[in-house]
Amino acid sequence: MTATLVAVQVLNGLQLGVLLFLVAAGLTLVFGVMDFINLAHGVQYMLGAYLAVSFYGLTGNFFAALVLALLAALAFGLLLEFLVFRHLYDRDHLDQVLATFGVILFLNEGVRIVWGAAPLSYPIPALLGGTIPLMEGFGYPIYRVAMILAGLATAVLLWVVVTRTRVGMLVRAGATNPRMVSALGVNIRRLFMIVFGFGAMLAGFAGVMAGPILSVEPGMGDGVLILAFVVIVIGGIGSIRGAFVAALLIGLVDTLGRSFMTDIFKAFLAPAAANQVGPAIASMLIYLLMAGVLFFRPSGLFPAAGR
Fold this sequence. Notes:
- By secondary structure, the chain is mainly α.
- The chain has a single domain (9-296), classed as Orthogonal Bundle (ABC transporter involved in vitamin B12 uptake, BtuC), CATH 1.10.3470.
- 74% of the residues lie in helices and 3% in strands.
- The chain has helices at 3-34, 41-59, 62-83, 93-115, 142-164, 166-176, 178-183, 188-210, 220-235, 240-266, 271-296; strands at residues 131-135, 138-141.
- It holds the Pfam family BPD_transp_2.
């Protein structure tokens, strides 16, 4: 275990954390404001990546593909809200789970029909190619650093919108008491639509950023969705600050655990036993963390006001 390896894995953990935050931020707002369980949020992450593949093929420019994919992800999220999700707001959570699971199946098969089942990708832009030297003889990819910075900038922008604007005030009020907000004359349906659309765009942004370094393939959002739910449980439902802290925490715990848990167990177990126990424990770390947080703080680390 060297200092260079630790530094690299910390950066990888931060990168995973900001991707999880981009997905979880929209999910926690939808859950917190609308009390709506959207299992299909992960496919919006997947669609962002596939849309970027298509727009890159049309434009040949990563940044143009990014902008077009974000607009398309926003439009597609609003379309889903209009066609499917708004009809489920007054239904119980079981109906929401079943309906959104059906949307997952439909969209996963849809991308297989449109784009095929083979993994796709698009290149890292030349502007963000190369590496940043961390130590002598070793560099870290500029694109991954850019992903971290883009995620942090998005978190700051989202914090400003939620805490310093009228829309953000309504979102926070809706997360605390949506019935009162509606009674005061606010068009709660329009608020729901705005929250849902921008949540879909954030998830799509995460998918676009992940596309050049991960395989773009059907079902790629399923694992991210599970981690995003862990994020909002740990951070607190409806809390952007909680989602940010929990996402970074999970990214670091998962990445560092998978990298070093076996080495840690080798300090007091035989190598063969450590090779078996280490990966098993590493895969459980984030769920153990979630269990610990729920035991001591059932509402999460930073629950929204009124929860």
